[in-house]
């Protein structure tokens, strides 16, 4: 037992064995491999050169023609028909696109002209509309002189329509009369306060209807406010 323990200790303390490096390739073997590759390359080059030499030398067109000759005639015919159909389809699609672009441009110009006319309306000469406006004003005066309370309300509503026409004539732009009045400058519109007061009464009449109490005296005063505005701009 003592000897076995001693042998075990000796084996444990023994230095590790050195691994032998892998043997290097022989120089003759490398030279042989290179020589074989050179021979194969020369053989392939000679074969390819001889192949194209029999066909008039090497050229890209020659290579393409060679491979095209391998394709059956019906396949080539199908490809040609498909290409022709594709060209016709592309031309038709391009024509449709051109028509669409022209149509869109025309519609865009019409919309642009419409918006320009809305933003920058051309003032109508006063002498062309004075007669028509005077007729409206005479009808308003007739309504306000009536004994019927519904005529008084109608007079105010029609006077407010005249105010809208006046603001359009002056070049004020907006969706409502209130929007147009907000753009008015007090220095250029001396009766702006009268216009606002009359327009607010009109809105109350339109929204509240018969619930809005309106006397003939009040109606005449409101029509007087509209008259002040119209006379400032020689609208009546």
Give a quick set of tags describing it.
236 residues, mainly alpha, 0% strand, disordered N terminus
Shape: rod-shaped
Percent helix range: over 70%
Distance between the termini: 141 Å
Pick out the low-confidence regions: 1-13, 18-25
Task: Quote the beta fraction.
Answer: under 5%
Q: Can you count the beta strands?
A: 0
Compute the gyration radius: what is it?
51 Å
What report would you give on this structure?
This protein is mainly alpha-helical and 236 residues long. The protein is built from 9 helices and no strands. The protein has helices at residues 2-13, 27-53, 60-70, 73-119, 126-144, 149-170, 177-182, 192-208, 216-232. Helix 5 (126-144) runs antiparallel to helix 6 and helix 8 packs across helix 9. The longest helix has 47 residues, at 73-119. The radius of gyration is 51 Å and the shape is rod-shaped. The protein starts with a helix and ends with a helix. The model is unreliable at 1-13 and 18-25 (pLDDT under 50).
Secondary structure layout plus pairing:
Layout: H1 2-13, H2 27-53, H3 60-70, H4 73-119, H5 126-144, H6 149-170, H7 177-182, H8 192-208, H9 216-232
Helix pairs in contact: 5-6, 6-8, 6-9, 8-9
Brief sketch in words of this structure:
It contains nine helices and no strands. The protein has helices spanning 2-13, 27-53, 60-70, 73-119, 126-144, 149-170, 177-182, 192-208, 216-232.
């Amino acid at each position: 037992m003592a000897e076995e323990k001693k042998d075990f200790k000796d084996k444990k303390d023994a230095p590790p064995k050195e691994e032998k490096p892998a043997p290097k390739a022989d120089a003759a073997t490398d030279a042989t491999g290179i020589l074989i590759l050179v021979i194969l390359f020369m053989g392939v080059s000679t074969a390819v050169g001889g192949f194209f030499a029999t066909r008039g030398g090497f050229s890209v067109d020659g290579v393409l023609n060679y491979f095209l000759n391998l394709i059956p005639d019906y396949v080539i015919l199908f490809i040609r028909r498909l290409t022709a159909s594709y060209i016709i389809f592309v031309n038709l699609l391009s024509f449709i696109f051109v028509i669409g672009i022209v149509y869109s441009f025309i519609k865009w110009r019409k919309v642009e002209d419409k918006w320009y006319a809305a933003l920058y309306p051309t003032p109508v000469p006063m002498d062309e509309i004075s007669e028509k406006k005077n007729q409206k004003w005479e009808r308003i005066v007739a309504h306000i002189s009536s004994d019927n309370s519904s005529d008084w309300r109608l007079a105010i509503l029609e006077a407010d329509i005249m105010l809208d026409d006046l603001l359009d004539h002056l070049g004020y732009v907006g969706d409502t009369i209130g929007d147009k009045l907000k753009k008015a400058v007090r220095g250029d519109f001396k009766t702006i306060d009268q216009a606002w007061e009359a327009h607010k009464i009109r809105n109350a009449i339109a929204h509240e209807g018969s619930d809005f109490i309106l006397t003939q005296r009040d109606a005449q005063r409101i029509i007087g406010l509209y008259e002040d505005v119209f006379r400032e701009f020689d609208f009546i």
